[in-house]
Amino acid sequence: MAASFAGKNVLLGVTGSIAAYKTADWARALGREGASVRVVMTGAAGRFVTPLTFAALTGHEVHADMFAPAGAETIPHIRLARESDLVLIAPATATTIARLANGLADDLLAAIVLATRAPVVVCPAMNCAMYQHPATGSNFSRLAGYGYRLVTPEAGAMACGEEGPGRLPEWDAVRESLLAALSPQDLAGRRFLVTAGPTHEPLDPVRYLGNRSSGRMGYALARTAHRRGADVILISGPTHLPSPPGVETIRVRTAAEMHRAVLDRLGGTAAVVKAAAVSDFRPASCADQKIKKSGPPAALPLAANEDILAGLGRMKKERPGFPLLVGFAAESRNHLAEGRRKLEAKNLDLIAVNDILATDAGFGAETNRLLLLDRSGRAEELPLLSKEEAADRLWDRVASLLASSCQS
Length: 408
Ligand code: CTP
Known about the structure:
five-stranded parallel sheet; Rossmann fold; single chain; alpha/beta
């Protein structure tokens, strides 16, 4: 099951930083993704934003008082600690971080964090000198030692007029940390190389031969593997997608550039997953100047690009311990037969066949329906899933193939 916020109780702890106004939007974003958000504010947080802001956005009362009014059914910090599936502290000030590092329980938020068994994600936000102070650094180490996830702040201009690290990170990076906190870390210690997107083969300085691949499937593979603890290198052809937080993204343009990048970064990888729609051909020559309307070429001669995956498959035959190879097959007919043929011909361990004519799957779609074929002859038809869910199912298969290759 892909990690998601649907049905999750998320406790958002807001502390006294000017960045508190930004996390009001995060409470809304979590709610839109199906989470039930309970907000706990420290006294200092209330100086920057009002409880009413968060109450209106979450639809729930905001908690700030350790000593609940008489008649409360249970002790608030224990009830909130127990009910939470996930705790997010954002923004987390140096004071709150020091309080948590020392295991204090002298305000409602600190008491909840001490009492909860849920994963804790901390987003520090503070002046850069405070952030760089060794006291703060050693507090971070202690929090990491308790198993809390720390989201690295961004560097830039600060509200106080200084410039440096300490700014609250963007929601996308925080969202990834939260989803990672909800995911099994079954791919930790593994490095994967994923390729994504189309390639663009230039014809002249402005034109190219390309294809309709959006890159979404490869990016979903990179995000989901990273969430499950893997170290991921994403080699991406031209796309409009942002680099997934925490994933080393190498942007390339042509099939030849992708080929070089793959060979350069192969060392130490447990598996290579080639979701990229690599162009099989390139214009035989690329004009230095723009080809003018007045002089159209009578024909466009093409040259074949090397098949990157087939090359890896040949290397694998000669090198024991070579990474697991996973290909994709973009097909419009004879899916099973073509998938099996490519699995054999390219010497792959697993292939995911896509129907490129389906409107709800494959190129450009948000969803995908994959047929997974492996060397044992097993064919697994996945239902229509979001690309992230499909990616998670593919990683499940990679994990089990890696486990069985360790045993054999
Ligand atoms: N692939 C590659 N290098 C190429 C072409 C394809 O590495 N020059 C990889 C793709 O990334 C994919 C797999 O090979 O994982 C299959 O790609 P696909 O386009 O389905 O098949 P082709 O081998 O190109 O065959 P055809 O176009 O004839 O279907």
